[in-house]
Design goal:
Distance between the termini of chain A: 8 Å
CATH class of chain B: Alpha Beta
Number of strands of chain A: 0
CATH superfamily of the largest domain in chain A: MetI-like
CATH architecture of chain B: 3-Layer(aba) Sandwich
CATH topology of chain B: Rossmann fold
Structural class of chain A: mainly alpha
CATH topology of the largest domain in chain A: MetI-like fold
CATH architecture of the largest domain in chain A: Orthogonal Bundle
Number of domains of chain B: 1
Number of domains of chain A: 2
Order of helices and strands of chain B: EEEHEEHEHHHHEHEHEEHHEE
Structural class of chain B: alpha/beta
Helix content of chain A: over 70%
Distance between the termini of chain B: 34 Å
Number of helices of chain A: 12
Number of strands of chain B: 12
CATH superfamily of chain B: P-loop containing nucleotide triphosphate hydrolases
Largest interface: A-B, 22 and 28 residues
Shape of chain B: globular
Shape of chain A: globular
Helix content of chain B: 25-40%
Number of helices of chain B: 10
Oligomer: heterodimer
């Protein structure tokens, strides 16, 4: 398993280089001059030309790319054009918010998705199944921004139980209680993904229930709960593990919307603002970080897969 | 075990009608018939494995060790499964859970029915694998099912079934999915284990050859009914039902040179087809007018039961 992990990490290098090229090229395809945006409406063409030269944006794209790549290999993601601070510290500023948001969302997805899906499958065809399946369908179809706004309307504006926006760091006043600011955003973000997991757990458990080895388990005289848990659920989990890789990709794009709706100082909102400001180094840096995270998540999914299914051998 | 007038339906379609048979300790009863005649359903019904399907038991009694097991509570029934009666299935390739080690799957059965520790149960599991002639049982306990061949997996299934020394073993086409040499080994193994333990065996098969080799008595099923039942010797010497006759004639004979194999014309009717009179009459070469209107009753001649208006005669 260690050899496999090392091999997989090495295999990510070419992928990362290809990804970095694509990121760089696509961002430079976006029309708009960062120097002009930075200097504002009153800037003269001469001033813009000077700044462009200063930032090295007058050089050919491949030169700019190689320069960026060289710095990258030294751990330097460049300097934000807008903030005039290293990109890494811009990302680090948003990391706490986005990290906790992601963590809480994952917890919701697992805590809601897996048990509800399992209950729906064991109560297949009853009203419990119909209600949970219907609710899951609803949660999966509702757009993130709409759900977010309604949760704010009900729990923040109407009932006043939870804050509607913002997120003070847990290291500031309030400490861990500040995590309540992330309760509504994480629920919003979790809803469509938990719904997907509910449907998936239910469907694969119903599939597995028809397997011959489940009949064997029942013929051993095992209690139905043990059959459902040890034999049906355990095998259904294999299909669900694969879905978590995709869920992460969906989370990234939905997080951008959620952070905007709840005005959270996270990485997602940073990306949106940086795109509007044509802050190339920040956009490149964030997307690269997301690519790396995505590859890590998929590696973890593969490792989980081999742990769940002995037929999968890691070579 | 005594099965009396067992009937099974899917929705309003009766699939198995008034099936009765009995089986004694140390004996093997063969149930033979074409695919879809209700043999497997009958065995699943006896085991109580039809729960959660569209299939319903509509009538009948299954007397096992003096009680009607169709009347006892679900948990009492479950306590019998595995410990007093066990079953092996047609598909050894898919009947073992792919994510657990062989040893754990055998131990699960032992721990379910006996108050022993895990280590002792594991020791028993190794002994069981040795009993079903699996070489190097200690290391095999750690194998996953996909690392074993079909024949080996069926041996493991047999080991699981025997784990708590059942008095009745139902083997539902245990060799159908295996190639011929392995089939013979598995049948020999079942025979040996039966002799050793004195359990009763119900062997379900569509292969009369298999039945002839292993069973003391046979019940021939056609379309959900037992059309003929008697001892194996009597059945081959003196088949009375034209369907049985057809089955015996259609066994290929290695010593005669034929261009075409003998077969029963037509096919098994689907379950929603309604056939009046005798269910076999559209395919029967002996059928006369009343066969299509009047269902034959079960007739007993000595120890030989059959359902036919015009049985084949002993001489023919």
């Amino acid at each position: 398993m260690l050899a496999f992990t090392i091999k997989r990490i090495l295999a990510t290098v070419p992928t990362l280089i290809a990804a970095s090229m694509l990121i760089f090229l696509f961002i430079h395809l976006i029309p708009g001059d960062p120097a002009a945006i930075l200097l504002g409406d009153t800037a003269t063409p001469e001033e813009i030309a000077v700044l462009t030269k200063q930032m090295g944006l007058d050089q050919p794209v491949y030169v700019q790319y190689l320069k960026w790549l060289t710095n990258l290999l030294q751990g330097d993601l460049g300097t934000s054009i807008f903030f005039q601070v290293p990109v890494l510290s811009v990302i680090a500023d948003g990391a706490e918010t986005s990290g906790f948001l992601a963590l809480m969302t994952m917890i919701w997805i697992i805590v809601l998705g897996i048990p509800i899906g399992a209950i729906a499958a064991t109560k297949h065809g009853t009203w419990i199944d119909q209600i949970t399946s219907g609710a899951a369908m609803f949660a999966a179809s509702v757009p993130t921004f709409w759900l977010g706004l309604y949760l704010i309307l009900i729990f923040a504006v109407g009932l006043g139980w939870l804050p509607s926006s913002g997120y003070p760091s847990i290291f500031e006043e309030g400490g861990l209680a500040n995590l309540r600011y992330l309760l509504l955003p994480s629920l919003t973000l979790a809803a469509p993904n938990a719904a997907l997991i509910i449907r998936l757990v239910r469907a694969s458990m119903l599939d597995v229930q028809r397997e011959d080895y489940v009949r064997t388990a029942r013929s051993k005289g095992l209690h139905p709960v043990r059959v459902a848990y040890k034999h049906v659920f355990r095998n259904a989990l294999i299909a669900v593990a694969a879905a978590f890789g995709f869920t992460f990709a969906a989370l990234v794009s939905e997080a951008v919307v959620t952070e905007t709706v709840f005005s959270l100082p996270g990485i997602g909102r940073t990306v949106v603002q940086s795109i509007l400001r044509r802050d190339y180094p920040v956009i490149q840096g964030v997307i690269l970080v997301i690519v790396v995270l995505y590859m890590v998540v998929n590696l973890l999914v593969d490792l989980a897969y081999s742990w769940l299914d002995p037929r999968v051998s890691l070579k | 075990m005594d099965v009396q007038n067992l009937s099974i339906s899917v929705g309003n379609n009766p699939i198995v009608r008034n099936v009765s048979f009995s089986i004694e300790a140390g004996k093997t009863l063969g149930i033979v018939g074409e695919s879809g005649c209700g043999k497997s359903l009958t065995s699943l019904a006896i085991m109580g494995l039809l729960e959660g399907t569209q299939v319903r038991l509509t009538s009948g009694r299954v007397i096992f060790e003096g009680t009607d097991i169709l009347k006892v509570s679900v948990s009492e029934r479950r306590a019998l499964l595995g410990s007093r009666m066990a079953m092996i299935f047609q598909e050894p390739m898919t009947s073992l859970n792919p994510v657990y080690r062989i040893g754990d799957q055998i131990v699960e059965m032992i721990l379910q029915h006996e108050p022993v520790g895990r280590t002792a149960a594991m020791q028993r599991a190794a002994d069981l694998l040795r009993r079903v002639r699996i070489p190097d049982p200690e290391s095999r306990l750690k194998s996953f099912p996909h690392q074993l061949s079909g024949g080996m997996r069926q041996r493991v299934m047999i080991a699981i079934a025997l784990a708590s020394n059942p008095v009745l073993l139902i083997a539902d086409e245990p060799t159908t999915a295996l190639d011929v040499t392995v089939q013979a080994q598995i049948l020999d193994l079942l025979e040996e284990l039966k002799t050793e333990s004195g359990m009763g065996v119900i062997l379900i098969s569509h292969d009369l050859g298999v039945i002839a080799q292993t069973c003391h008595s046979v019940a021939v099923m056609y379309r959900g009914q037992i059309v003929e039942a008697c001892s194996t010797v009597e059945l081959f010497a003196n088949p009375l039902h034209p369907y049985t006759g057809g089955l015996i004639v259609s066994i290929p004979d290695a010593y005669s040179n034929v261009d075409e194999l003998n077969a029963i014309p037509g096919r098994v009717p689907t379950i929603d087809e309604r056939i009046s009179g005798c269910a076999f009459h559209p395919r029967c070469h002996c059928a006369k007018d009343n066969c299509s209107t009047q269902a034959p009753q079960t007739i007993q001649r000595a120890d030989h039961l059959y359902q036919c208006h015009y049985p084949l005669e002993a001489s023919s």
